[in-house]
Amino acid sequence: SGLSITTPEQRIEKAKGETAYLPCKFTLSPEDQGPLDIEWLISPSDNQIVDQVIILYSGDKIYDNYYPDLKGRVHFTSNDVKSGDASINVTNLQLSDIGTYQCKVKKAPGVANKKFLLTVLVKPSGTRCFVDGSEEIGNDFKLKCEPKEGSLPLQFEWQKLSDSQTMPTPWLAEMTSPVISVKNASSEYSGTYSCTVQNRVGSDQCMLRLDVVPPSNRAHHHHHH
Ligand SMILES: *[C@@H]1O[C@H](CO)[C@@H](O)[C@H](O)[C@H]1NC(C)=O
Ligand SMILES: *[C@@H]1O[C@H](CO)[C@@H](O)[C@H](O)[C@H]1NC(C)=O
């Protein structure tokens, strides 16, 4: 029976700035004799607009100047759309591109459509590692790992890079937390540490140098940042 879109409905997830490929392959049947029309529509999730046209193929021509937010960023990927490939690329993805995309193919009497959910995530970046408190023997302080941006959920992992590379035993429970609460600091905690922060589209890393010294040494101690 008639025209059909062979690409299954799917959810597509990409990082901000990347290109999303939205596939839409179709097959015609001999009884589909009308003119071929292909329409891609967007229902963005951040506002009330529903099924706004973003790109059109009609009368063997392509029209793509309907939706200002996507101006210059939406293209058919095939240079022979009528052979059965209505897939598009959306380039330089923005958070405002998140939404439901619909591919509609018409060649009377055949009609078909498929929906695709596009999610745009922000990679973790600008991550800062720092010590919150005074790095003195016997003190309590915190090691913090803070990405400037990054979509949730975020995963954290601390590692010791220097010496034996083994994390102090009391910290093990917080090795995958953005904050390590250090209690009763010992000089053995001194060393270089890294924090890796990751989400589904990317990862970032920061490092810190910890020098745990006797309180009396503080005045003479050269502080590294
Ligand atoms: C569409 O985007 C994909 C990456 O997602 C890329 O590999 C492909 O070359 C692009 N196609 C066109 C025609 O730009
Ligand atoms: C702090 O650690 C030292 C050894 O590093 C230990 O002798 C002392 O009892 C500890 N103090 C507390 C309050 O746990």
**Which ligands occur here?**
2-acetamido-2-deoxy-beta-D-glucopyranose
Uncertain residue ranges: none
Overall structural class, as computed from helix and strand content, comes to mainly beta
Integer average pLDDT: 93
Strand content: 35-45%
Q: Could you characterize what this model shows?
A:
- By secondary structure, this protein is mainly β.
- Helices cover 0% and strands 43% of the residues.
- The chain has a six-stranded mixed β-sheet with strand order 2-11-10-5-6-7, with no helix packed on it. A three-stranded antiparallel β-sheet has the order 3-9-8, with no helix packed on it. It has a three-stranded antiparallel β-sheet with strand order 12-13-15, with no helix packed on it.
- Strand 5 and strand 6 (52-58) form a beta hairpin.
- The radius of gyration is 27 Å and the shape is rod-shaped.
- 23% of the residues are buried.
- The mean pLDDT is 93.
- Residues 19, 21, 77, 89 line the site of one 2-acetamido-2-deoxy-beta-D-glucopyranose.
- One 2-acetamido-2-deoxy-beta-D-glucopyranose binds next to loops.
